[in-house]
């Protein structure tokens, strides 16, 4: 599918959990009249339970395998906006397929802005649970290198959802 024109390629949003991949992805899809695919949501639907319960009952390894299968499937489709989980790019196979088949957009948010959102996230993100703020900070920084593999980076600290979606669409038009 590598010869697919840029305009037809699916857009994949990456970044640390809680940076806004789902929220901003929905806004981009609406503006571009594309179908929105949220990989976490697809997995939760398949297991009929929230991610935290999938981690508890089946373990992270099972979740990661399903995440890879889902992304391998959807990244081959055109005209989608796909939000992947915050840990998806840990897997090389996922990075490789998304970078080859799609336009990968990294939503960057500084640690200082991110930590203001923690209360919104802690209950639903199993990877954050039971960790001190220092451990979460360490996780945040340890994940940053994997997000460097992207086609476009958008700094979202000073942007609301609509502004971030517009900034991404504008940048893609000029790419
Ligand atoms: N640009 C923004 N400004 C302020 N708050 C935002 C913005 N984008 C998202 N949020 C809020 O941050 C929280 C996390 O957003 P969202 O669920 O979209 O993150 P995510 O990147 O999809 O996370 P995950 O990787 O865990 O799926 C939500 O409560 C959302 O309303
Ligand atoms: O950063 C992570 O490892 C995760 C982020 C979420 O989007 C979910 O995919 C899950 O909670 C794991
Ligand atoms: Mg999400």
TrEMBL record:
Pfam families referenced in this protein's UniProt entry, alphabetically: SKI (PF01202)
Chief localisation class: cytoplasm
Any GO BP: amino acid biosynthetic process
Assigned EC number: 2.7.1.71
Single GO cellular component term: cytosol
UniProtKB keywords: Amino-acid biosynthesis, Aromatic amino acid biosynthesis, ATP-binding, Cytoplasm, Kinase, Magnesium, Metal-binding, Nucleotide-binding, Transferase
Class in the EC hierarchy, top level: transferase
Cofactor(s) essential for the protein: Mg(2+)
Signal peptide per UniProt: none
Chain sites annotated for binding Mg(2+): 22
Family: Belongs to the shikimate kinase family.
Known role: Catalyzes the specific phosphorylation of the 3-hydroxyl group of shikimic acid using ATP as a cosubstrate.
Quaternary structure and interacting proteins, as annotated: Monomer.
Official protein name in the record: Shikimate kinase
Source organism (scientific name): Virgibacillus profundi
